[in-house]
Amino acid sequence: LARVKTPYSVVNKLLRKRLMTLTDTTGGMLIVSTAAEVRRLDAAIGAGALGRVIERVDFYKTPNAGYRAIHYIVDFPGIGPAEVQIKTVRLKVVQGATHTAYKQGRLSVEGSEQLYSLAVAADEGDPQAAAQFGALRPQVLALLRGRNRREHLGQQFVMEMADDPGHEFAGGLG
Fold first, then answer.
1. CA 14 → CA 7, 137, 167, 168, distances in Å?
2. What are 79-97's pLDDT values in tens digits?
Protein backbone atom coordinates (compact mmCIF):
# COMPACT_ATOMS: atom_id res chain seq x y z
CA LEU A 1 0.00 0.00 0.00
CA ALA A 2 1.20 3.55 -0.64
CA ARG A 3 0.00 7.03 -0.09
CA VAL A 4 0.71 10.66 -0.91
CA LYS A 5 -0.32 13.20 1.72
CA THR A 6 -3.05 15.62 0.70
CA PRO A 7 -2.11 19.33 0.57
CA TYR A 8 -4.38 19.89 3.60
CA SER A 9 -2.52 17.18 5.55
CA VAL A 10 0.88 18.63 4.59
CA VAL A 11 -0.10 22.13 5.76
CA ASN A 12 -1.54 20.74 9.01
CA LYS A 13 1.61 18.76 9.70
CA LEU A 14 3.85 21.73 8.89
CA LEU A 15 1.88 23.87 11.34
CA ARG A 16 2.01 21.17 14.03
CA LYS A 17 5.74 20.66 13.54
CA ARG A 18 6.35 24.45 13.48
CA LEU A 19 7.42 24.39 9.84
CA MET A 20 10.27 21.93 10.46
CA THR A 21 11.58 19.97 7.48
CA LEU A 22 8.87 17.62 6.27
CA THR A 23 10.36 14.42 4.86
CA ASP A 24 7.36 12.10 4.69
CA THR A 25 5.07 13.58 2.05
CA THR A 26 5.48 10.34 0.14
CA GLY A 27 5.59 6.91 1.66
CA GLY A 28 4.55 3.34 1.66
CA MET A 29 3.79 0.44 3.96
CA LEU A 30 5.32 -2.99 3.96
CA ILE A 31 2.59 -5.21 5.39
CA VAL A 32 3.73 -8.68 6.42
CA SER A 33 2.27 -11.71 8.17
CA THR A 34 4.40 -12.13 11.28
CA ALA A 35 6.51 -10.24 13.78
CA ALA A 36 9.53 -12.25 12.58
CA GLU A 37 9.05 -10.80 9.08
CA VAL A 38 8.86 -7.29 10.57
CA ARG A 39 12.22 -7.88 12.29
CA ARG A 40 13.77 -9.28 9.08
CA LEU A 41 12.68 -6.25 7.01
CA ASP A 42 13.73 -3.89 9.79
CA ALA A 43 17.25 -5.34 9.73
CA ALA A 44 17.46 -5.14 5.92
CA ILE A 45 16.24 -1.53 5.70
CA GLY A 46 18.42 -0.53 8.65
CA ALA A 47 21.41 -1.98 6.77
CA GLY A 48 20.63 0.27 3.78
CA ALA A 49 18.76 -2.12 1.46
CA LEU A 50 16.49 0.71 0.21
CA GLY A 51 18.86 3.66 0.59
CA ARG A 52 20.38 5.84 3.27
CA VAL A 53 18.36 5.77 6.50
CA ILE A 54 17.64 9.31 7.71
CA GLU A 55 15.47 8.34 10.66
CA ARG A 56 14.07 5.24 12.35
CA VAL A 57 11.28 5.19 14.95
CA ASP A 58 10.36 1.91 16.64
CA PHE A 59 6.76 2.12 17.86
CA TYR A 60 7.05 -1.47 19.12
CA LYS A 61 9.46 -0.24 21.79
CA THR A 62 7.65 3.05 22.38
CA PRO A 63 3.97 2.64 21.39
CA ASN A 64 1.89 5.74 20.71
CA ALA A 65 -1.67 5.26 22.05
CA GLY A 66 -1.07 1.55 21.47
CA TYR A 67 0.06 2.03 17.86
CA ARG A 68 2.91 -0.23 16.81
CA ALA A 69 5.01 -0.26 13.65
CA ILE A 70 8.50 0.65 12.59
CA HIS A 71 8.81 3.89 10.64
CA TYR A 72 11.77 4.87 8.52
CA ILE A 73 12.60 7.96 6.55
CA VAL A 74 14.79 6.64 3.76
CA ASP A 75 16.67 8.72 1.19
CA PHE A 76 15.99 6.70 -1.94
CA PRO A 77 18.78 7.13 -4.54
CA GLY A 78 17.62 9.38 -7.37
CA ILE A 79 14.22 9.94 -5.73
CA GLY A 80 14.73 11.58 -2.36
CA PRO A 81 13.29 11.00 1.10
CA ALA A 82 10.18 8.94 1.69
CA GLU A 83 8.58 7.28 4.67
CA VAL A 84 8.52 3.49 4.91
CA GLN A 85 6.32 1.83 7.54
CA ILE A 86 6.64 -1.84 8.48
CA LYS A 87 3.73 -3.56 10.21
CA THR A 88 1.75 -6.78 10.19
CA VAL A 89 -1.67 -7.35 8.67
CA ARG A 90 -3.29 -7.43 12.12
CA LEU A 91 -1.62 -4.19 13.18
CA LYS A 92 -2.66 -2.52 9.92
CA VAL A 93 -6.25 -3.56 10.55
CA VAL A 94 -6.18 -2.18 14.11
CA GLN A 95 -4.52 1.02 12.90
CA GLY A 96 -7.16 1.38 10.22
CA ALA A 97 -9.94 0.98 12.74
CA THR A 98 -8.48 3.44 15.26
CA HIS A 99 -6.66 6.07 13.18
CA THR A 100 -9.50 8.55 12.64
CA ALA A 101 -10.55 8.44 16.30
CA TYR A 102 -6.91 9.01 17.32
CA LYS A 103 -6.51 12.02 15.00
CA GLN A 104 -9.79 13.48 16.32
CA GLY A 105 -8.86 12.92 19.97
CA ARG A 106 -11.71 10.43 20.51
CA LEU A 107 -9.64 7.29 21.07
CA SER A 108 -9.77 5.27 24.26
CA VAL A 109 -6.07 4.71 24.81
CA GLU A 110 -6.75 1.76 27.12
CA GLY A 111 -9.05 -0.01 24.65
CA SER A 112 -6.69 0.71 21.78
CA GLU A 113 -3.72 -0.60 23.77
CA GLN A 114 -5.56 -3.84 24.53
CA LEU A 115 -6.41 -4.41 20.86
CA TYR A 116 -2.86 -3.61 19.71
CA SER A 117 -1.36 -5.88 22.42
CA LEU A 118 -3.64 -8.72 21.34
CA ALA A 119 -2.56 -8.26 17.72
CA VAL A 120 1.12 -8.24 18.71
CA ALA A 121 0.73 -11.46 20.73
CA ALA A 122 -1.03 -13.11 17.78
CA ASP A 123 1.71 -11.90 15.41
CA GLU A 124 4.31 -13.49 17.71
CA GLY A 125 2.52 -16.84 17.28
CA ASP A 126 0.24 -17.02 20.33
CA PRO A 127 -2.70 -19.20 19.12
CA GLN A 128 -5.03 -18.04 21.92
CA ALA A 129 -4.40 -14.39 21.06
CA ALA A 130 -4.94 -15.17 17.36
CA ALA A 131 -8.31 -16.78 18.16
CA GLN A 132 -9.36 -13.85 20.36
CA PHE A 133 -8.32 -11.35 17.70
CA GLY A 134 -10.24 -13.27 15.03
CA ALA A 135 -13.35 -13.22 17.23
CA LEU A 136 -13.17 -9.40 17.28
CA ARG A 137 -13.34 -9.15 13.48
CA PRO A 138 -17.04 -8.05 13.36
CA GLN A 139 -16.37 -5.18 15.78
CA VAL A 140 -13.29 -4.09 13.82
CA LEU A 141 -15.30 -4.12 10.59
CA ALA A 142 -17.98 -2.00 12.27
CA LEU A 143 -15.34 0.59 13.21
CA LEU A 144 -14.07 0.65 9.64
CA ARG A 145 -17.53 1.37 8.23
CA GLY A 146 -17.42 4.78 9.93
CA ARG A 147 -14.43 5.91 7.87
CA ASN A 148 -14.48 7.65 4.51
CA ARG A 149 -14.83 5.52 1.40
CA ARG A 150 -11.17 5.67 0.28
CA GLU A 151 -9.92 4.64 3.75
CA HIS A 152 -12.58 1.95 4.01
CA LEU A 153 -11.68 0.43 0.63
CA GLY A 154 -8.00 0.25 1.64
CA GLN A 155 -8.91 -1.51 4.87
CA GLN A 156 -11.33 -3.80 3.02
CA PHE A 157 -8.41 -4.85 0.80
CA VAL A 158 -6.30 -5.69 3.88
CA MET A 159 -9.19 -7.63 5.42
CA GLU A 160 -9.68 -9.55 2.14
CA MET A 161 -5.95 -10.28 2.03
CA ALA A 162 -6.29 -11.76 5.52
CA ASP A 163 -9.20 -13.92 4.34
CA ASP A 164 -7.43 -15.18 1.19
CA PRO A 165 -7.19 -19.00 1.41
CA GLY A 166 -3.63 -18.84 0.13
CA HIS A 167 -2.62 -16.38 2.81
CA GLU A 168 -1.21 -17.38 6.19
CA PHE A 169 -4.31 -15.99 7.93
CA ALA A 170 -6.74 -18.13 5.92
CA GLY A 171 -10.15 -18.25 7.49
CA GLY A 172 -9.91 -14.78 8.99
CA LEU A 173 -7.62 -12.82 11.20
CA GLY A 174 -7.64 -15.41 13.97
1. 11, 36, 39, 40
2. 888 999 999 999 988 888 7
